[in-house]
Fold:
Amino acid sequence: MKIIVDVGDMKVSRNGDELVTHALGSCLGLTLWDPVAKVGGLLHAMLPLSKINPEKAQENPYMFVDTGVPALFQAFYQLGGKKERAVIKAAGCGAPLGDDKIFKIGERNLVVLKKLLWKNNLLLAAEDTGGTESRTVYFDISTGTVMIQSAGNKRVL
Amino acid sequence: MITKEKLERLIRELPSPPQNALRILNVLRTPDAGAEEVEKALRYDPGLTAGVLKMANSAYFGLPQRIGSIKQAVVLLGWKRISDLVMVSCMNSVMDRSVEGYDMEKGELWRHSVAVSVTSEVLAKELNIQGVDEIFTASLLHDIGKILLGMEVKEQIKNPNLFFEGNQSFDSVEKEYIGLDHAEAGAEILSRWGLPERTINAVRFHHKPDDSPYPDNMLDILHISDALCIMMGFTAGKEGLKYQPSLNAVKRLSLSQLTMEKAATYTMEKMNQLLNV
Structure:
């Protein structure tokens, strides 16, 4: 089954399903996969830190990287995924043209993610991040294949 | 390159010109038009009336009582609000479609347009900026030029990769290849439709607010809100993030990172409320 993950949302699923999220701009798309349990999850987080709107974070932790990533791991564990087998891939975190700091939301999303992973002794297996592309992620839970589509071309992550 | 004649023809050929929207907006723009007159104008369009009432009753406005008539809606929400809702109802049929040339699927342009409209309103409120009454309509219509330009892109651009994958800002690519960008095309459409000058100007300069002949908070908010929505996944086409947001607009609005990011957290919720999703 194809399951769509909306902006500021997360879904976990089992063997046989495909998780899809559209139009990652500066947002972070994070996939987690356990090749043995054949379970996986996909997060589409918008902003780096929940402190800008704690009320919203309470209501929807997936909107922010700092609350969404732990929530994704929790849901992944509940489905039988194991931390030591987790294959983690990141996509998105782009930016518009120019160097203005205020618009570097994507870069900050990636920094917050990496800090979280580092603190937990985890590393990214692959990433397709930065630039001005808008990316769509197709994540096949059966095989763990993460496909990135942007501006008409498709590639495996 | 597009000729003047071709542009006029494309504007005339645009899908289902929103006659009702224009008629009703004219009534609304007449200062002494009463609620009854609006009701009369809407009475001959039951679908439109139903759409407007549905939105007026949505969680977006959070009214304590249920609105049963347009007259009541005008009293409770005011002229401006009703004209916004008429605009949403009328433009849905024009803008909720796929856009050839830009490879936008059905719904993508509409979703982006509504996202920018609600984000602009949130930003105006957060920044406590008054006197931007046309911001909702200007935001809703800011990318309408893409419908027109898309036809030309499909016809003229032989190598879409070159067109979409460069490193320049996309509006300048459009201008180079076609002779005008989608913001200018949008402004041309809206001037034919008789929209207020300030709205047309905001649409024309929504990617280049520093080039506007006069400074306008409404334009600056639209510019930021558009950039923010594209970044947040409410995209507007194959070009992705290839636009340069103006730091001057940020300064003119005294916009902080916190305020900007906070506004983005409300976009989805407000959109869903307004469209009753």
